[in-house]
Each structure stands twice: as C-alpha cells, then as structure tokens.
Amino acid sequence: MSLNWKEINLILEELELVGFQIQKAVQTAFDVLCLKLHGKGKGKNLLIALTPGACRLHETFSIIPKRDRPLRFAEFLNSHVVNSWIEEAIQLEDNRIVRLTVKNRDERLLLYLRLWSNAANVVVTDVNGRVMDAMRRLPKREEITGGFYRPETMEMKPTSKSYDIRELDGQGSFNEKIDRFYAEQGGAFSLETLKEQAKKIFEGRMNRLIASLERLAEKEADFVNAERFKQYGDIVLANIAAIHTGDTWLEADNFYTNERVRIALDPKIPPQAQSERYYAQARKAKNGLADLRTELAAGKEKLSRLEAALSSLLSESNPLILRNKLRSDSRPAGISVQTAREDQKRPGLSFRRGDWLLIVGRDAKENDALLRRYVKGGDLWLHVRDFAGSYVFIKQRKGKSYPLDILLDAGTLAIFYSKGRANAEADLFYTPVKYLRRVKDGPKGLVIPTHEKNLHVKVDKDRLKELENCRVEK
Q: Which end of the chain is more exposed for a tag (fewer CB within 10 A), N or C?
C-alpha cells in the first residue's frame, strides 16, 4: 500500500528537511532512490521508492545496499544536485506530489517526487519547469531532458476519497513506524513484482536456449545420416555415366539395400563433382557429430542450471534478498563478475550465444580499438566482401572449433552492420586475427587478411531476432 497524502504531509512535518544538505545520491534499483542528507548537526537517509503499490517517501534506518555500477539517474543527481541545500519541502495540495526546492551557489533546482502507484517518477527541473532529467524517462508526459514539467500550473483534481493516517504498531515517530512496516511487511507489495521480473528474465533465456537445442537436435539427426551420405556418394560414382550437367536427380539401384533410390544432384556442378559433394557431407557429418553432441550436453546442463536458479528465486520470501539474488543470478550462467565488468568496458556491441562471445565493431574507431586491445591471435575475424561495414570477432574457446551455427551468427551480424544490409545475403572473409596485416599509413582499423576463407550467408530474420535477445546490455 502506497502512502496517502495525509501520511506524506505528516512525514514531511517530522523530517523538517529545510536546512539539510544533499551529500550523496544512491540508486539501489531502478525504482528506489536514497538521498544522504546532513544538517542541524545530524545526518539522515531519505528513501524515495517508486515501486508500484508501495510508493513512498520517508527516512530509512536500514543499511543502504550498494550497486557495483551506479545507475544513470543517481549519476545525474551526484553531478547536478549533490551539495545543494534544501530550501523548501512541501506537498502540492493533496496530490501526492512533493516539491523539493534546492539551491547550490546561485542555481536553484526543483525536484518533483510524484508518488502515484500507476505513474510514479522523480523529475528534476529548473525554476522555469524545463526538465533536466527524470528517474523514469516518459516522453508522452514530456518527462525527458528538454521537456516541460510544472504541476503547479496544471489543474489539480481534488480527491473525493477520505484518507486517514494508518495506526501502526511500535514505538517512535511515524517515519520510524513506516520504515519498519515496509522493511518487515512491505515485501508483499514488491515481492510479486520482483518475481515477475525474475520469470521474465529467466523464461526468456530458457526459451531461447530450448529453441537453440531444438535446432541442434535437428542437425544431429542429419549428422547421424553420415553413412547414408557416403552410400549416396558411392551410388553416384557408380552411375557417373548416366549423369549429365544440369541434372537435378539421379534414379538408380541402391546396391547396399537393393532398393530403388532417387538422389538429389546439384545442376550447377559437373557430374564428376557430384559424388565428392556427398563424400564431403559425410565427412562433415561424421566430424561434427561429436562436437554437436558435446554442445547439446552443455546446453541441457545450462538449461538445468537456469531452471534451478529460477526455482530458487521464486521460493525467496524476502524482497531485499530477492533483489540482490536477482542482480547476481540474472547474469547468464557461467558468466563471472569479472567477465560482466569486461563486457561493460569493451567498445562495440557484444552478443553471448551460449558459451560463445561475438563482438561487433560498428565503425573504424571501434574496429581499431578491438584489434589493439580486446582480441587475440586465435580469435576469428569476419568481414563482408565488397561492402564497407563492421568487423565481427568470435572469441576463441580453448580446445574448441568454431561451430557452423556460430559462424552463421557472426556472418549475420557482419551483414546486418554493413552497407550490404539491404541485399540480405553476402560473401564474407573469415580468418584468425593473427593472419590480419595492418596497412602501413592506411586509415584507422584497415587490415588485409591472409589465409582467408569464404563464407556465403543469407540473413535469417529469426536468427537476427534471437541474436538481438542475446545482446549484452551495457
């Protein structure tokens, strides 16, 4: 239950915020902000929560959890509002909008705390109402940088409901009682939101993994047919005289099973190459089957870990513990804290596809930075032929060859982030980074590949959508 307007007025009266200095802003979550204040010989922590069903403003006596990386709005406040003195702290009539007027040197700013369960926000404006930033950026309400927000000039709707100040158990001020209430029993108001967030994160990841496992299972079925491909090659070779360039099918006796078979041919290649095409498929199927089954086993194990992690999160009853668990457990399985931090620092775009990391340099500057500092000789480099565009790198995994599926992912990204995107298909170079040679006195990031191979890729919209879901957020 969110605070009503009478409770907000009582809290503001008890806080006596005028004369306090804002010394630090800490944003513990996207909907929770804490202002560390000092004045009148004492300090206090002002908690502002925009959590649906539990919107509130009060002094908190709990330990404020720290984030590994500051959130955007807290960084803005620490740059523009910290060290300001509070000159005014009032509620605008009975509308659950609190206005804090703060002054730093010769500049005055207004902090509006709108504590509405369905549209809560914190908006910082200048004295004319021009928005400098907002905790939640809402373009339709003009609550974005450069927008206009001045609720005093809007028509305030008087409330028709009657509200009372809650009678809460325990000793101390209403601030102290409210702080205890939300700490001890307020979990019911935010716990379901956190659990829904956990389900959204993990079920999305599990669904993508299940789809990937289904594709691998289909490939496994093809790879199991390695012996059939070899038989087709033998049959084609035995009937080479009956095949003409341009034929699409060969009907012949299968001397392995004594059945009549119809074998597909490639009309673009000569008869002598038709059998080699099937032998190559047989070799590829035989060699790839072991790697594919290893990949399948790893994927199933990862799915089990994700299911166990989600089950653990959904069984948690303490919202603070759940929030902290969600922050750490929502990283993809197998991703360490150190790796997560490296993802934040690396230029370009990063995509995690299972245990593989794909990196995209979007321009010459990012391409050059990645080549100099973030990729190694064994990593694979891809680039679209005949078009300007991004470099795509696949980070090497020790003892692992690059699966075809990952090559297709990287090729899709290379085409999508190139001038050839409109063609929806292209030929690509690919070669290990150690075989790239810089052009002397050439433009930044320009390289000449050696030992390169060719890969032809058609952009699959479903694959592209899956890749977007695998993008590492920064």
A: C
